[in-house]
Amino acid sequence: MVRRANQREHLRRVSERRRAAGRPEADRNSARTVIAASVLAGVSAVIVSFITGLGSSIQGLVTDVLTDEKKPTASAPPHTEPAVPVKVVVMPEEGGSFLVSEQRVTSPEDRAVLINGATTQEEWERLLRKIKATSIHMTAYKVAVTNVSSSPVRVMDIVPVITRRSKAIHTTMIEPLGGMASDSIPVQLNLDNRFPKYTQDGKPYFTSESQVLKAGEGFVMAVEAKLLGGEYVEYHLKVNYLDKKGSQHSLEVKEPGTGVGIFRVSGSVNDTEYTDYWGPTKDGQGRRLYSRKERE
Description:
Layout: H1 2-70, E1 86-92, E2 99-101, H2 108-116, H3 121-131, E3 134-136, E4 138-147, E5 153-167, E6 172-174, E7 187-190, E8 198-200, E9 203-204, H4 205-208, E10 211-213, E11 218-226, E12 231-242, E13 248-253, E14 263-266, E15 276-280, E16 287-289, H5 292-295
Parallel strand pairs: 3-14, 6-15, 7-11
Antiparallel strand pairs: 1-4, 2-3, 2-6, 4-11, 5-10, 5-12, 7-8, 8-9, 12-13, 12-14, 15-16
C-alpha cells in the first residue's frame, strides 16, 4: 500500500513538472506571437510609410516635370530677316535744268510760281510734281544700295528698265533761272541706246565689277543719264543680286517711296514747237510766256 501511494505521488509530481514545463512554452509561444505580430505591424507600417512617401515623392516629381513643361521658358526674341535683303534709295541731284512737261501751267497760283519764282523749295517741287516736269537731255541722281539683312549679298547688276519711249515732249518748256548746274558724275547712262547700261569710261560698269555687301554695308552710285535724241523715255531700276545661298533675285525699284521711282527724261524739239515756252525775263528774276514769234 505504501509502495502504491509512493508511486502515485511520484506520478503526480512528474505530471505537474510536465505541465509546469509546458506552460512557459505556451506562454513563450504567445509572447513570440505578440512580438511577431508587433514586428509585422511595425514592418507593415514602415512599408506603408515608405510606399506612401515614395508615392508622394514620385507624384511630386511627376508634378514638377509636368509643371516645368508648361512653364514658359524665357528666351531671346527670334531674329526676323527682311523679305528683301537689299534696300535701294534714289536721290535726285540738286541744280538747275531745262524742264519740259506734257501739261500746261494754267492756274494763276501755278503761273505766279513761274513768273515770280517760288518762295520756298517745297512750293517749287510741288509745282514740278503736279505737272510731272522732267529734265531735258540729262538727269543726274545717286543710287544708294544697302544690305539690310544679316547675311552677305552680291549685287551683280543694276539695269534700267524702259517702260515708255515716244516722241520728245513739246507742250511746255521751262528754262532754269541762274544757269545750269554742273556736276562730275562717274557713271553714265545713254538712254538713246535701246538696251542701256550703266557705263564707266565707255565700258559697262557691272561687266567687270560687282559689289559684295556684308550685313549693314552699302554703296552709292552717282549717275548721269543722257538722252540726246528727239524722244521721251520713262524707266525704273532693277537690281540683280545673289543671296548667301548663291540664288539670283531681282528687285524692281519703281515706287515713289524710294525717292524717285519712275525716271522721266525727254529729248528736245525746236523752240517754236512748244505750245508754251516759259523763258526768263530780261532781269533774270522771273519768267514769262514767250510767243512763237518771239521764239523764232
